[in-house]
Each structure stands twice: as C-alpha cells, then as structure tokens.
Specification:
This protein has a two-stranded parallel sheet with strand order 1-2. It has helices spanning 8-31, 55-63, 76-79, 108-121; strands at residues 42-47, 88-94. It has one domain (4-121). By secondary structure, the protein is an alpha+beta fold. The N and C termini lie far apart (60 Å). It has 4 helices and 2 strands.
Length: 126
C-alpha cells in the first residue's frame, strides 16, 4: 500500500506550499524598504495540534505536513517579520489558520483584544 507522502498529489501540494513561502520571503527581502513608514506592523502566529483544528485544517495538516510549529497552513516562523524589519512580533498563540471563522472553537475576540491592549500600551493607537 502506498503511503500519503509517496503520492504525487502530496508532492504537488508540498512543493506548492514551499514555493509560496520562498517567493514571499524573496519579495519581502527585495521590497520591504518600500513599505509605508508611518504605520506600524504586527505579526501573530498560530499553533494548533491536529485534533484541536477545524475539520478543513485537519485536512491541510495531512496534505501540508510540516515538522515545525504551524497553524495548519503557515509555519509559525514564516508568520513573523524578520529581524531586519521594524515590526512587533507578538508571538505564537493557540489557533489554526481559520481562527477568524465562526466555525472555529478558538476565541477570535480574545486575540483581537490582546492586539488592541498591546498597541494601546505602546501608545500606537488612541
């Protein structure tokens, strides 16, 4: 019996995900200096276990299997801004890629509220 990792579908999906990550990183390296300077940038990464995920995220965790901490689609280290860019990396919290959907069991409002409290603390918002 052929394992999922040996199928061509798995290879296509894995290579697609890898190319997106690499292309985004290359784009950001080339163009980050052209981004607006008078605003602030924040990043928040999500981490979810297979059984904590929404059904669709369970499927993506099977297809886009990664050894690194991820939200079902994006590896947490890829969700953060690089050190050379002036931004606020807010860390990794429990949640999956569909955390903004109402079908999620994760507390979307708590994440938004935490962002607002942090930004108010930094006097970046009124």
């Amino acid at each position: 019996m052929t394992s999922l990792k040996e199928t061509s579908l798995f290879n296509i999906v894995a290579n697609f995900e890898k190319s997106l990550s690499n292309e985004q990183e290359i784009w950001f390296q080339q163009y980050h200096q052209a981004l607006p300077k008078k605003c602030f940038y924040t990043a928040l990464a999500f981490e979810s276990d297979f059984f904590d995920s929404h059904f669709w995220m369970m499927i993506t965790k099977i297809l886009l299997n990664s050894e690194r901490i991820n939200d079902g689609v994006v590896d947490a280290d890829r969700a953060m801004f690089p050190d050379y860019f002036s931004a606020y990396n807010l860390g990794i919290v429990n949640g999956h890629h569909l955390v903004g959907n109402r079908s999620s069991l994760f507390a979307q409002e708590a994440i938004i509220e935490a962002h607002l409290i942090f930004l108010k603390y930094l006097n970046l918002i009124a």
